[in-house]
Amino acid sequence: MSIIFKHARQLVVEIDEFINTAEQGVLVFKEGVLNYLNNEKESFADKISDIDRLEAAADRLQRKIDDEAYQHSLLPQSISDVVSMLDRVDELIDIAKDNLYLFELELPFFPENIRNEYIRLTTTSVEAALCVIPAVRTYFREPVQVRDMLSKVYFYENETDKISRSIKRKLFHEMHELDLAQKIHLRYFALHIESISDKAQELADALSIMALKINI
Prior knowledge:
mainly alpha, Methane Monooxygenase Hydroxylase, Chain G, domain 1, 84% helix
């Protein structure tokens, strides 16, 4: 992280911890959704508690980082970009928490014949986020490598879109046993799961531009 900060080892540690916390939050979201889909109620409740703790920790770290970043900046003109990028990282864990709570609050019912599609959707959407996080870390150390790392993010985001469209097509064209309200409810949850990969793509787009600025 020496390209941005000087004499700020504690800040570097805090940024690493913040990124790690966001990554853990995304993983907890994945496991929580899979717990819900597999009717593992106790494990799902544990994931709700875990993501609460992780999101709160991420917020505390982000506030500290924001306060300290400008004090230790070698390149003040770049810090606003860095802070904005870390805001996008925080959005990943925020939306993971919000979406996991939707399962607890709304108790969607997933028919057996479409459950596997939601498992694939969750796994693929989260994979986009798990691919962008290493690129965030790399930005601070070897920004020249960042753009080459982002292709997987776009691949998984595109795959998530395909799976989501397939689910919606199946819901509205094949699953005639469901009433319209059930179909809309299940589509709603497909959109929320898909939003993880959408946020990952937005972060990848921002990283790409930031890396390009540094390499010019």
